[in-house]
Amino acid sequence: MVSSHVGRVKRGWNTLRKQFAEFARGENAACTKSTIVGTLRDVNIPQLRSVKKLSATALLIVVLATPSFWLMLAVPPLWRNSDAYVQTVYPPSAGTILAHGPLYCTLSRVPLWFGYLISGTGPAVGLGDFIKHTQLTDAGVFALVFLQHATLWCAALYFINAITVTLSARLLLAIFFGSHPLFYTFAHCVGSETLSMIIAVFLAGAGLRIVLRYPDIIVRDWIIFGALLCSSILTRHINCVLVALLPITIFLIAVGESLRIFIVQRHARSTAHFELSKATCVWGMSVAIGLAALILATSVTHLLCWRAHIHWRSNFGYTFLWRLNFLERVPAASRDEFLSATASQCQLPETRQLLAMLANSFGQHKH
Fold first, then answer.
1. Domain of 15?
2. Does 109 reside within a domain?
3. Closest Cα partner for 207 from 244, 234, 181, 245?
4. Could you give phi then psi for residue 278, rounded to 5 degrees?
5. Residue 77 and residue 88 in contact, taking contact as beta carbons nearer than 8 Å
6. CB 195 within 8 A of CB 107
7. What angle do CA 23, 29, 34 make, to 5 degrees?
């Protein structure tokens, strides 16, 4: 697309230059001022603007990509402990659907599959079979990490374009974004936290677009925000708390606008009533979008459990109970002192009894 635009612009300017030369030599009498003006009109100004816009975007991408290339050349891929291995290798099961969000566990297999095919370490298999029997290769892991960095560039560009208009402001924000190692370190990791962070940047950009266009929000903004919110929940289950983010923001904005109208236009009650009803509709839409994203993500999880022949169950609290086993490594005296101090701070007798049972379980070497 860029080459076609550039080619058209070059042809227009070549024609114009040729007519100027003929007019100067007097070889073409028909080449008058009106002809030259017509040729100038043939040079598509919107195409020039498109080329300028694409050039500016390419400049921002170069700024955002520079830390990523340095990191990929200097640091090997980082692994999020054993969770990353489960998310990228285990077949569809309770571990990749219920314990961890299914989106990263599924999407990460695509670059791993391409890397496996390119490396030639085994027979060619389809993507479906590869998901069930994933094999890690250097090329696959590199493709996954590179794709994560590239997606981060797109997320940063989407966020920057949402809050700035001029090229200079966007360039400054791109430099500021590229100077923070947190984003690029996460992008260099193998694990669902990476995709969660990238979607969060996209979600912030979509939310800012909604806030800036309040109250005249177009349907496309709602759809994009809802899709990103659903993807975020499917990446990490804890992201379901983000459902309340937009309704709270819209509510605060609506309260601020209502107070401003009430103070500035005390006698314009009809205007205040109209603005209040419009704000109520926008707030209701934000609640509906959040609930729709939550229901859709839950439905997808149920569907994946059904296809994998897994009984759906909530894992709420499982991680906490599993981490209690870390106390086994603590010396018995220190562990008992810790549990006793904890029990002394509890008011409910049931809680103290539960901690006593926990201490007895450790004493009997039980999980």
1. 2-71
2. no
3. 245
4. -65, -40
5. no
6. yes
7. 70
240: its two tokens? 């379901």
| pLDDT at residue 364 tops 90 | no
Q: Are residues 254 and 283 in contact, defined by beta-carbon separation less than 8 angstroms?
A: yes
- Greater confidence (323 vs 26) lies with 323
Question: Is 248 within a domain?
Answer: no
Lowest mean pLDDT among 34-48, 182-196, 296-310: 34-48
- Residue 32 lies inside a defined structural domain of this protein: yes
Q: What pLDDT is recorded for position 267? A: 52
Take residue 25 and report the two structure tokens written for it. 């030599």
Q: What does the block give as tokens for 316?
A: 């709420």
DSSP 214: T
User: Within a domain: residue 217?
Assistant: no
Domain boundary among 71, 99, 125: 71
Alpha helices (runs of H) in the chain, residue ranges in sequence order: 2-25, 33-42, 45-74, 81-89, 94, 102-107, 109-119, 127-132, 138-163, 167-178, 181-187, 192-212, 219-235, 245-264, 269-307, 318-323, 332-344, 349-363
Cβ–Cβ < 8 Å for 164, 173 = yes
A 10 A CB-CB count for 217 gives 18
Residue 157 token pair: 């560009």
Predicted confidence (pLDDT) per residue in 143-183, tens digit: 999 999 999 999 999 999 999 988 899 999 999 999 999 99
The total number of structural domains that make up the chain: 2
Last residue of a domain, one of 71, 103, 128: 71
- Placement of tokens 């208009």 in the chain: 165
Q: pTM of the prediction?
A: 0.78
Strand-pairing partners, residue 190, are 79
Average pLDDT value for residue range 40-47: 56
Residue type, 192: S
Pair 96, 90: CB distance under 8 Å: yes
pLDDT at 36: 46
Q: Which of 45-49, 240-244, 312-316 has the lowest mean pLDDT?
A: 45-49
Residue 72's nearest CA partner among 138, 9, 17 is: 138
